[in-house]
Each structure stands twice: as C-alpha cells, then as structure tokens.
Specification:
single chain, Maltose phosphorylase, domain 3
Length: 440
C-alpha cells in the first residue's frame, strides 16, 4: 500500500480504512484469525502491526494534502473478531495504537516484544512477557515523528509536544541500552540479556536494528555509519545482506530453540531476507551513500542473482522477488524461496523512487533528495504531484552521491535552505512544470 499511495491514493485509503477496522479498542489489531476453538490466551498480539498504519496514513496525506481523512469515523473490531463495536476517527485509531505500545513498555523503557515483532522468530526471546524490542522502539520513534507533524497541522500543539517528549524517552533508552560497541543490539530477552550482541555465539548482529535506527532519525550519526559498516562487513554476501549472523546450525535442539527449528541459512536463521535488504537500502540512501545503496539494490534483483549463481541454483522466477534466499550457512546458498509472497516488490519500488531517485512526498512538499551512484550523470523523472505533471531533470556534473545545490521550477529558483521541497505554491500555475535539479 505504501508503494501505491502515490499512484492510487484512493485505493490506498480504502485499504487503510479496512486495516483500521481490524483494530481493537485498546489499539492493537488482529494478526491472524484463529479457529474458534482456540483460547484467547493463544491470540497473537504483536508489537508492530498497529504502527504500520501510521506510516500509510502519513504517506496518503503527504501525497494528496487531504487532512480530512483523519476525521473519518472507522469502527473498532469486537472481541469476537467478527463484529464491530463503537467507532472513532482515524486520528483516534492512530493514537490508540501509540497508546497500546506505550502501555506495553519493558523495564528498560523499550517496547515489549509480546508475541513477536516484524521478525516472527524473535518471539521466543520474550515468551515470559519481559523481552523488549529495539526495532519496535525505532519504529515507534518513526511513527511519533510523523504524528507530531500531523498534530501540528491539526493545530494540536500540546499533543505534538507530548510526542516529542516520547521520542526523547525512546531515544534515551536506545542510547543507554542499544549500542554494543560496533552495532545496535536487536533487543533484550526475558532475562534482560542482549539479543544480537558481541557476546552471543549465534545471531550476534541483526540487520534491522541497524537500518531502522537511521530510518527513524534516531541515534548518533557516527555510530549509525559504523553500525551500517559493520552490517556490510558481517552480513553482505554479494547476493544480499543476511538478516542476522551467524545463524544457528541444524534442526531443533536446545541451542537452536530460539528459531523454532529453522534450518541453517533459512529465513530468520541467517538467511537473506530480501525485504529487510530494502530497509538497508533506505538507510544507506538516507546516509547519502548512494554507491552502497545502488549496490544493495542491484544485487538482490533476481536477474542479478541468476547471472552470478545460475538459474539451476536460484531455482525461482527471474521476474519476481522471493521473500528469502538461503544464506551462506546453507549448502544451497542462493536458492530463492517463497516466491511472490513478499513485501519486497513494493518496498523495492519505494526505495528506488523515493530514496535512490529521492522523489519523496512529505507534508512539507515533494522532497527532492537523490542518493545515487556517483558514476551517474543524472536522470529524469516524470511524476504527477497533486494534479500537476512534473518533468524533473536531475543533473550531477560533479558526480556526487548526494546533495542538492539548486532547484528551479520553470526557471524560477526554489529556496532549498531547509531542504529541496517543491510545494503546491511552487507549481500552482503550472499544468506541466519543468523542474531542474543540480546536485552538488
């Protein structure tokens, strides 16, 4: 839906409304509809699901400028997971999700893992209800930043200030507990022991904790760069970045119980989880390291994998992304699995258009923020933005990876002191606008 928000915002809103209607009154949404014979204790309550709808709401409003969607009434899901009970505005739905997370913080101030977060197999680290997730903390910060922007546009100044305080609380907790010397830990288990630490024999570095620190806008820049360098050194296989490493060997054993018996190199046990590679691309683009972002983007494309490994080894379609490829710990390294059932295709679209090409909708306007390979002379983009067709010509005479020196719209210079934003006023009188961007 994020990939479609700037193409078909009406459809994206329909899906957003449906997702919000699957949210309980306490703010968390249903994850899987268990058969009726399952007991409530076996319900899957994850720590991340409700945060994603914040990102989608922001993306739709950034594209359309339509703040009114936040005031539309949407029902809540009843406890039976079939009917609905009561309703609230979309804005209230988003706030309830944040409240749910903040009502489920661990003793270190980080969000509880609950059943699991985005990584399905992180759950066993928190089965006693005390484990905490660094990734969800980073996601919470990202959501709070977006909600703060929306609150200010709604005139809710005090609420925006509260969001900033909560961001500060999470940033302080991450600063205190997440840095492990060369990278960020993935979380804390039920015994307050770090997940993804130098001291661990297996899975001592996890990719998502590094990339999401940068995506969220949190962390110290020096440490963030060092963390991404560590991820590159320890996780890059040439076919994609491993989700974590080193993975647990073999099938179920006492030692590998934390990954529920995933074989070595598969999925969340040292596999190349392709969707997570997209967030690494985003992170490198945000750091301005376009050469690395482009390398990561190209190397997970099925065609690139096949050229390196051969179709007999990849064993999947050349025209569709897989959810995962087997990692280096597996004798069948490079085998593509779970074809076409993945968020990768959508995320690769987002990272290509909004982070590498850098044409990114925000509430301030359309941000022009390229992060490209230095060998490029430039590129052109055609895009509809709020009813105006933009012809964007980006020139890179100095062969830099990142940075914008000037922007003009139909020859008129745009003030880029606080970022290269093209707002509606800049293109108000143009059906077709010629935008020239000089990098440097």
């Amino acid at each position: 839906m994020l990939a479609q928000a700037y193409r078909k915002p009406e459809w994206a809103y329909e899906m957003l409304e449906y997702l919000a209607s699957q949210q309980f009154e306490d703010g968390h949404p249903v994850h899987i509809m268990w058969p009726e014979e399952r007991t409530p204790a076996q319900d899957i309550t994850r720590s991340d699901n409700h945060l994603w709808i914040v990102y989608l709401a922001y993306a739709i409003i950034a594209e359309t400028g339509d703040m009114s969607i936040l005031d539309r009434e949407i029902p809540f899901l009843a406890p039976d997971k079939i009917n609905h009970t009561g309703s609230a505005t979309l804005w209230e739905h988003l706030l309830r999700g944040i409240e749910f997370t903040e009502n489920h913080l661990g003793e270190h101030g980080l969000p509880l893992i609950l059943y699991s977060d985005w990584n399905d197999h992180i759950g066993p680290f928190g089965r006693r209800g005390k484990g905490e997730s660094v990734m969800v903390s980073e996601q919470l910060i990202y959501a709070l930043r977006q909600l703060s922007e929306l609150a200010l546009l709604r005139g809710e100044v005090e609420l925006a200030a509260k969001f900033k305080d909560r961001i500060k609380q999470q940033e302080d907790a991450l600063s205190k507990y997440a840095w492990d010397g060369d990278w960020y830990i993935r979380g804390l288990d039920d015994d307050s022991m770090p997940i993804g630490s130098h001291s661990a024999k297996h899975m001592n570095i996890w990719l998502n904790a590094q990339s999401w620190m940068i995506i969220s806008g949190a962390g110290d820049k020096k440490k963030n760069i060092h963390a991404m360098d560590s991820a590159r050194e320890k996780l890059d296989t040439g076919l994609g970045l491993l989700l974590n490493a080193p993975g647990f060997p073999g099938w179920p054993s006492k030692e590998s119980s934390m990954v529920n018996g995933l074989p070595a190199g598969f999925s969340e046990n040292g596999g190349i989880f392709v969707q997570a590679n997209c967030w690494a691309i985003m992170a490198e683009a945000l750091l301005g390291r376009g050469d690395i972002a482009w390398q990561y983007y190209k190397q997970v494309m099925p065609h690139s994998v096949i050229k390196k490994m051969g179709i007999e080894r990849y064993r999947s379609e050349a025209y569709a992304y897989c959810s995962t490829m087997l990692g280096i710990a597996n004798e069948k390294f490079g085998w593509g699995l779970v074809s076409q059932v993945t968020g990768t295709a959508a995320w690769m679209d987002v990272v290509a258009t909004q982070y590498i090409l850098g044409i990114r909708p925000t509430l301030k306007g359309l941000l022009i923020d390229p992060s490209i390979p230095s060998e490029w002379d430039g590129y052109t983009v055609e895009r509809i933005y709020r009813g105006h067709k933009l012809h964007i010509n980006v020139k890179n005479p100095g062969h830099v990876c990142h940075g914008v020196k000037s922007v003009t719209v139909n020859g008129n210079p745009i003030n880029i002191t606080n970022g290269a934003y093209i707002n509606e006023q800049a293109v108000a009188k143009c059906v077709n606008a010629q935008v020239t961007v000089i990098m440097g």
